[in-house]
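Protein Record: Sequence and Backbone Structure Tokens
======================================================
Scope: a single protein chain, as residues and as a discrete description of its fold.
Tokens: labelled as protein backbone structure tokens, with as many entries as the chain has residues.
Position: the record begins directly beneath this header, with no further notes in between.
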Amino acid sequence: MNKSLGGVFRSAWNTTKNNFVPLLVGILVYVGPTLVLSMITTALPVTLAGSGLAVGLELCALAYIIFASPFYMGYITSVLRTWHLTGAPVRMSTAWAAAKANYGRYMTTLLAAIVISFAAIFVIALVSSVAIVGSIFSAAGSFYGGSAGYEYLTVLAAMMPALVVMVALIFFYSFCLSFVQFIPGMEFPSGFQAVFRSFRYIFRGNFWKNLGHTLIIGLITVGIELVVILPFYVPYLSTVLAPGATLSDITYASTALTAALPLYTLVITILGIFLQTFTTPYMFEVYLNAKNVSDGKDSQQLQRTYGDPYTNFTQDNNTQPPDGGGQYPPQIPPNGGR
């Protein structure tokens, strides 16, 4: 079934509404420790900001993300899978047990995604570097005859198309990995097979609809975040852009904005957690939709290649018995022949 945008939204909202607590608990367990470590690192005195303690806390946060990600993805997929198959909320203990059982498959998938990502980043950086160098050389004649600031702006203008291409390639690659977190828990493949299957569903499962679903949820998420964080920047921007703003006014506004950063970080983190309880089921519905479309195309292709599988197994009911008067097929006499 190829769902429309409204159908995906309704299914995702229904999933979030009926599984809000299990989803929220899983997200908090995954995000909470990294958030605490980040807050401790940010709160360190300036004298310790670049010390070994800060570096150690950052490494601990990175290690936790790497080793907890497979467990988190397995847990969330178990919650969504149970609801999709049974229509009933899963017990959290059952979801944790499923995540533990699938931990190895998710870890191999994560490592495969990291390897492929390094290769993709290298290719994107190479293409972007060639494009940037080409843009600069193509506009080299306009760098001379002006002030240093004008030449600097000219270089940036020449580099802009290449930078746009780089950002587009990074987004496109991230988009192709949208389904990796669900495949090991929903299907058999893991590792590189899961990564490549995500690419397959993206392209074969109605590419433009998948792209549209992803862009729409991204724009909605960014729009909600902008509405929430805008009040933190309105006083600063109104002061800086005021016609009669003095240096002291701008300094005061900057100080006030810096003082509000911890509150801003807390608000945006809480908002992100609650948004994730909807965006993850939403992308799960997009994955199911793309998988159904891809599987339907595979089934149609097999039918065109091999024909109807049941046709070759039918036989004429009027087949005559073999010569000699025997029965075809053999039959058991009444009462067992007694």
Observations:
- Residues 104-204 form one domain.
- Residues 261-306 form the longest helix (46 residues).
